[in-house]
Amino acid sequence: MNINATLKEILLPDVPESQPVAWIGLDWGDKNHDFALQQRDGPVERGILKAKPETLHPWLRQLAQRFGGRPVALAIEANRGALIHILVQYPWLKIYPVNPVTSTRYRGAFTPSGAKDDGPDAQLLLELARDHASKLRPLEVQDEQTQKLNALVQARRDMVDRRTQVLNQLSSLLKSYYPQALDLVGNLNNDLAIDFLSRWPDLISLKATRPVAMKRFYFAHNLRRVQLLEQRLELIAESVALATEPAFVEVCVLQLRLLLDQLRVFRKHLLIIDAQIKNLFAEHPEAYLFRDLPGAGPQLAPRLCVAFGSVRRLYPQPESLQKLAGVAPVREKSGQQLWTHWRWLAPRFLRQTFVEWAGQTVMHSVWARTYYQRMIQKGKSHHAILRALAFKWIRVLWKCWQSRTPYEESCYLKQLLRRKSPNALAT
């Protein structure tokens, strides 16, 4: 007789294999995690865990042994990404990421005073998992390739945003003591600008350079248009320093060198991450659905790929992705009043992906350009049109994704003509 199996039968209630045998509410903290756990027909157990992997993994292994690896529902606030990375390693956990707004409003419904404590928060999360699971969306884990590609494209976007901050700081600094450099280098984000400012960090050192040396520099950086070259040499000859106080200029030069070093690092690592994205996207099994989309290109095609992923049950209808991406409008009704507004608290990167790509399709897709022009004539704003266009594109791509059929502009235009859509009739 298997004693362990008999003990499990006694300790665990007789429930279907697909149903959870227990629920957990886990409230994340910087140093400690509060949890509330309830087994079916049992009391609520509360406890505190140190916010360390060395504590969390043994606790989860104990739970796996206690419940025999049977399903356990766990609710956690959605923005606790580091902790979720640990939880997804245990397949018997059914994880419900709860939007912080949801838990806050649920708490406020029973605590009008606004009082907050980590222990009761864990209890509230437990109740959400136990009593409202049907209204929550369980976490679905994408395949390993999609996860890595998603991490890469998000890391790239973060790098680009931080590089933009450095470029804005560099531009502002030059305007404060060396504005002529902005006209002499043009775009700050290129080798010519970085080498120019490294060699001539102020106007005094620049004016001390002979014109023949300047010509050699520009020639070496592939600037050989005679008219533009003469204009820049003339500008150098006529330039007057904005600031000449050594105490001020020397500090500005120090700041300039710091920003140039940061810019070099960003440019170096962006090339590395771009190469990794290109290689991984080329190997992705879903890439054929996104690589040739109008206006997608090497940056947006991988982002669209990870936006859909490979788990098709995650978006059973196009509306599920439209709402998640924040491009589906929200309608509110009260009495005789009805108003529409855009969706708050949507994942920013996901919404940016679809809206930015919709903007590119205006230049590369016939029906998208027609739709944009029609909406402009109706007085709609640029950003409102792009969100509405992204809404339409998600529906089109969702159908292609579900049927595993690459998008073809000519086929879609024929469909629009058959339906007598104004987006086709105006082409």
Q: What's the Cα radius of gyration? A: 29 Å
The CATH topology of the largest domain: Nucleotidyltransferase, domain 5
Q: Write the element-wise H/E pattern from the N-terminal end onward.
A: HEEEHEHEHHHHHHHHHHHEEHHHHH
Report the CATH architecture of the largest domain: 2-Layer Sandwich
**Separate helix tally:** 19
Please describe what this structure looks like.
This protein has 427 residues and is an alpha/beta fold. The chain folds into 3 domains: 3-139, Nucleotidyltransferase, domain 5 (2-Layer Sandwich), CATH 3.30.420; 147-280, Helix Hairpins (Orthogonal Bundle), CATH 1.10.287; 310-425, no CATH class. The protein contains 19 helices and 7 strands. Strands 3-2-1-4-5 form a 5-stranded mixed β-sheet. Strands 6-7 form a two-stranded antiparallel sheet. A hairpin with a 4-residue loop joins strand 1 and strand 2. The longest helix has 38 residues, at 246-283. The protein is globular and about 90 Å long.
Name the features.
427 residues; alpha/beta; Nucleotidyltransferase, domain 5; Helix Hairpins; 3 domains; two-stranded antiparallel sheet; 19 helices; globular; disordered N terminus
Write the layout of secondary structure elements.
Layout: H1 3-11, E1 22-27, E2 32-39, E3 44-50, H2 53-66, E4 72-77, H3 81-87, E5 93-98, H4 100-110, H5 118-131, H6 144-177, H7 180-185, H8 191-199, H9 203-207, H10 211-220, H11 226-238, H12 246-283, H13 297-308, H14 318-325, E6 330-334, E7 337-341, H15 348-364, H16 366-377, H17 382-403, H18 409-418, H19 422-425
Helix pairs in contact: 6-12, 6-13, 12-13, 13-15, 14-17, 15-16, 15-17, 16-17
